[in-house]
């Protein structure tokens, strides 16, 4: 008959808790989840929040970006943010072109800015 441990240490909160404070998990050697129920709930919540945030980002990011919108995107906004937004597009081929195009615009803008600085 196997020895049944009545307590188990949670690797997350480092607390020794009763086995009742751990969810059952048949895939684990001791038949219990490695983290306690409290930590598990916290982890689940964090995961859900992350998922929600990701979904929100996906909705806000157009699947296919209109090339004519690049200037608009780059104008007056943080250029890095615009690039980030471009990098999140699903279409990788288009995405690559857009990022190339965007960095060229930034290069040109920097060039113009430095020329303006030089002449004034
Ligand atoms: Zn814990």
Q: What structural class should be given to the helix and strand makeup? A: mainly alpha
- Bound ions, cofactors and other small molecules, one mention each: zinc ion
Strand order of the largest sheet: 1-2
Number of helices: 4
Please, could you describe this protein's structure?
- With 120 residues, this protein is mainly α.
- It folds into two domains: 1-60, Wheat Germ Agglutinin (Isolectin 2), domain 1 (2-Layer Sandwich); 61-120, no CATH class.
- It has helices at 37-60, 69-74, 79-87, 92-119; strands at residues 7-9, 16-18, 22-24, 32-36.
- β3 (22-24) and β4 form a beta hairpin.
- α3 runs antiparallel to α4 (92-119).
- It starts with 6 loop residues before the first strand and ends with a helix.
- The model has no long low-confidence stretch (mean pLDDT 74).
Summarize the structure.
By secondary structure, the protein is mainly alpha-helical. The protein is built from 4 helices and 4 strands, in the order ββββαααα. The chain has helices at residues 37-60, 69-74, 79-87, 92-119, and strands at 7-9, 16-18, 22-24, 32-36.
């Amino acid at each position: 008959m196997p020895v049944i441990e009545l307590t188990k240490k949670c690797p997350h909160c480092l607390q020794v808790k009763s086995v009742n404070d751990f969810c059952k998990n048949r895939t684990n050697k001791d038949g219990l989840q490695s983290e306690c129920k409290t930590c598990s709930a916290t982890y689940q919540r964090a995961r859900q929040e992350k998922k929600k945030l990701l979904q929100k980002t996906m909705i806000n990011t157009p699947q296919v970006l209109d090339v004519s919108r690049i200037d608009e995107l780059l104008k007056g906004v943080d250029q890095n943010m615009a690039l980030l937004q471009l990098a999140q597009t699903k279409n990788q081929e288009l995405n690559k072109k857009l990022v190339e195009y965007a960095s060229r615009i930034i290069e040109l803008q920097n060039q113009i800015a430095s020329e303006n600085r030089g002449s004034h």
